[in-house]
Amino acid sequence: MDTVSLLMGGFSEAFSPMNLLWVFLGALLGTAVGVLPGMGSSMAVALLLPITFSLDPTAAFIMFAGVYFGGLFGDSTMAILVNTPGGSTAIATSFEGHKMALSGRAPQALATSAIGAFIGGLVATVLVVFFAPKLAEFAILFGPAEYFALAVFAFLACSAVVSDSLIKGLVSLIFGLLVATVGIDGISGTQRFTSSIPELFDGISIITITVGILALGEVFYKIYERKRPIPTQHRKITGTARLSFSDFKEALPAWLRGTSFGVPFGVIPVGGAEVPTFMPYTTERSLDARRKKPQFGHGAIRGVAAPEAAGNATAGTAMGALLAMGLPTSATAAIMLAAFQQYGIQPGPLLFERNADLVWPLLASLFIGLFVLLILNLPLAPMWAKLLLIPRHYLYAGIAVFCVLGVYATSPSVTDLLLVLGIGFVGFLFRRYDFPLAPVMIGVILGPLAETSFRNALLSSGGEYSILWGSSITWVLYGMMFIVLIAAGYKHYSNLRSARR
Description:
Blueprint: H1 2-14, H2 17-34, H3 40-48, H4 57-82, H5 91-102, H6 106-138, H7 144-161, H8 166-180, E1 183-184, E2 191-192, H9 206-225, H10 245-265, H11 274-288, H12 302-325, H13 331-342, H14 351-354, H15 356-385, H16 392-410, H17 414-432, H18 438-461, H19 472-500
Antiparallel strand pairs: 1-2
C-alpha cells in the first residue's frame, strides 16, 4: 500500500494547474516534432532540454513525460499518412498503416495507433510503478549469445514471412546488412566500405537510411506512377477516428500481443524500440498468413496495432529501467539521463528514497500524459488525415523538401544528402520490383547488434561456438525461429502448387 499512497501523492502534485499545463505542452510539442522526418521523440527531448533549465526539476520532468510519449505518436502519424516515419520506431507501423491511409482509412489507422499507444504505455507504466526492480532484473539474463539469437530469429522470420518470394526477402535482408557494415569496425578499428570518406567513418545514419528507403523511395515511386491513372483512393477519406466494433475486435489481440513484446524489451539495452516493434509486426504477419483471406499487404489493422502498442510499452518500461537502475536502454532514455544529471540527480536504486518528491510526480505525469495524448490526438486524427487531400504533386514535393531538411538538420553534410538520394533510388527500385522493405530495415537496425554480439560471445568463450546455443533463452528463440521457418516454407510451397494449377 505504500506504493499506492506514494503514487497518490504524486498525482496530487502532478494535477496542479501549472504541472498539467507542462504535460499538455510537452505532449503537443512532442507530437509536433515527431511528425517531422528524421526528428522523433529523442530529438524532441534533446531540443527541449535547454529551454527547461529555467524550470524546477519537477516541472521539467513532468514536461518531458508528455514529450516522451507525444514524440512516439508523432513519429507514427506521418508514417501512416505519407509513409515517412518521424523516427525509426515507426518504421514497422508504416508498412500497413500507409496502406490503410491509401485505401481511405487514415482516421481509423491513426485511431488504432493512438489507442494502441495508450494501451501499451498504460500497461507498461503500471508495471513500472509496482514492479520496476523485478523488470530490471530481466535485463541481466541477456548476454551476447542471447542478443545474437534474437537478431538471427528476427532476420530469418521477417525475411521468410513478409514476401511471397523467399529469395526477394533474403535479397532485401542482405542489402540491409551490407549497408549496416559501412563505417569503422567497432572491435578491430578497421575501415569497411568507406572509400576513405571521413563522413562514412561513423557509418550511414539510420535517419538517412529510413528517409531514403521509405520516404524518398515513395516519392520517386509516385513520380514513376504518374504515367498511370491516379487512383481515386488517394483522394477520399472515409469514416472518423472511431473504430467500429469489428475493427476494435480485430485490433485488441494485436494490442495485447504487442504490449507483451514491448514490456520486457524496455529493460533490455538493445538501443531502442525498433526491435520490439518489428517482432510483433512479424508475428502478426505470420498469424495472418494462416487465414483464408490474408489482410497484410492491403492495410491490415493488426499491422498498425501491434507495433504501436509495443513501441509505447517499450518506452514505458525503459523509463522504469532508467529510474530503478540508471540504465538508459534507448536514445531518448539516454537524453533523459543527461537531463537528470544536469539537475544533479543520479537515477538508480537510491533514487526512490533520495528524490521521492520528484520520482512519484514524474510517474504520475506519465499516466496523465497518456490520457492527454489520447484526448488530444483522437479528435485531431481527421485533421491529420486531411493532409492526404493535398494535391499529390504538392504533397510529395513537400515531403521531399522535409526529407532533405530533416537529414541535413541531423547531419549537415553533403555526403549524407547524396546518400539519401542514392538510397532513395534503391528504395524506388525495391518498390518497383516488389522487394519487401521490412527486411532491409531489420538488417540495418539489427545488423550491428548481431555482429557485435556474435564476436563478443566468441571472444568471451575463447572461440567456442557452443556458447551461441548454450542457454535456455537461446533454445527458445531458435525453436521459435524453426517453427516460423517451417510455417513459411509450407506457405511458399502451397503458393507454388496453387500457381502451377
